[in-house]
Amino acid sequence: MSGIMAFRAADGDGSRGTRGFDATVAHPARVYDYWLGGKDNFQADRIAGQETIAAYPAIRSSARANRAFLTRTVSYLAGQRGIRQFLDIGSGLPAAPNTHEVAQSIAPQSRIVYVDNDPMVLSHARALLTSGPQGVTAYVDADLRDPAAILTQAAAVLDFTEPAAILLLAVLDHIPGLDQARQILAQLLAAVPPGSFLVISHAASDIDPEAMAEMTGRLNEHLAQASYAARPREVITRFFDGLDLVRPGVVTVTRWHPRSEMDSARMASHWGGVARKPGRCRPG
Ligand SMILES: C[S@@+](CC[C@H](N)C(=O)[O-])C[C@H]1O[C@@H](n2cnc3c(N)ncnc32)[C@H](O)[C@@H]1O
User: Fold this and answer.
1) Angle at CA 112, nearest 5°, toward 110 and 117?
2) CA dist list (Å): 82 to 74, 108, 163, 201, 271
3) Ligand 1 within 6 A of 171 CB?
4) Is any ligand 1 atom within 6 A of the Cβ of residue 118?
5) Is 110 near ligand 1, meaning CB less than 6 Å away?
6) Which end of the chain is more exposed for a tag (fewer CB within 10 A), N or C?
7) What is the reported pTM?
8) Ligand 1 centroid, distance to 175 Cα (angstroms)
9) Cβ(145) to ligand 1 under 6 A?
10) pLDDT of amino acid 128
């Protein structure tokens, strides 16, 4: 099966406020795009971007390191673990290489579902929906706080009786309630079989804590909802409870299977890890 598929999920509980474009208020996807040096942002996002960079200049290189972590983890899962299905939640604005480009360069039949709740990401979905002919790429407009809606829509493309990778990169940072974050994870993981993987990256509250706290405070002043929360390594490690953490465990994103010693030594203010849901895979 090949082609382009896009869905529109219900607007969750609506608690995020307006679903329309609001160029006058900073949005997480667009501020992140600014940190990455992208052009898909408005003045409100650039102001938020500049103020947060002033508080914590390293956030720019850490955002880039986070994208490199995405590339390495997807390469690892597709290349070394045989994963052919990816659910990338909080996918953000396109920033090549995107998940489908990495996965399909290794396994062209890979199926990828992107999910985000930002209307601007939705408007750029076409750029993400460029699957190779053997695979499938789809986009779901939905909210991480409504995992059931995500899973229902994604099931049109992903076969949840087969292992899948759930990618939550720099998005749990936008779920400030710890219990809520854990419930979301439990719901997502319950839907996938043993042999599936969870990938998380998350802003670190315990690396350069004062600068990170200042940066977080400034970002929240600009967002429609002051929802951004960095967390310490210990808390992020516990997100993987019940799973088998792949070595080296939860480390700064630059230290997870680095391609060189120089890369590994780079500073990053995001923790990252990969874990496998234990148990036997269904015989194929
Ligand atoms: C910092 S960006 C990360 C993008 C990409 N995952 C990466 O790591 O490069 C966070 C993304 O999560 C999205 N996001 C934030 N809260 C969300 C929610 N409740 N549901 C779905 N997406 C959300 C934002 O719109 C944004 O695109």
Assistant:
1) 175
2) 10, 12, 9, 21, 24
3) yes
4) yes
5) no
6) C
7) 0.93
8) 10
9) yes
10) 76
